[in-house]
Structure to design on (110 residues):
């Protein structure tokens, strides 16, 4: 008996879910940017750095969405889908950098 791979009923579904997940991530960074903008009077110009980092990640995700979707579609059709490790690592590093900057600003304010 040979096992056949299950057919994908909607091959575009996985790329669409991935794009939606990245869109939620982009929106989260934009909301964080708005919060940083609101904290600007209290924490001073250091918030500009956090605002810049958060906005840069959000716009980076926005401008790479079309290429990411196209790459995911090609991967589904070729049955060789790979995670976008570079984007995940860069996003994670930016989150860590923003966290370190925020901690430094809070400690210096005390």
């Amino acid at each position: 008996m040979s096992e056949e791979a299950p057919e994908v009923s909607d091959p575009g579904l996985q790329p669409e879910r991935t794009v939606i997940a990245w869109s939620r991530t982009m929106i989260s960074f934009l909301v964080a940017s708005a919060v940083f903008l609101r904290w600007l009077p209290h924490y001073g110009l250091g918030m500009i750095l956090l605002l810049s980092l958060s906005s840069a990640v959000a716009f980076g995700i926005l401008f790479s969405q079309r290429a990411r979707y196209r790459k995911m579609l090609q991967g589904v059709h070729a049955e060789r889908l790979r995670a976008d490790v570079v984007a995940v690592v860069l996003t994670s590093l930016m989150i860590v950098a923003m966290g370190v900057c925020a901690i430094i600003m809070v400690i210096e304010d005390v």
Q: What stands out?
A: The chain is about 80% helix and 0% strand.
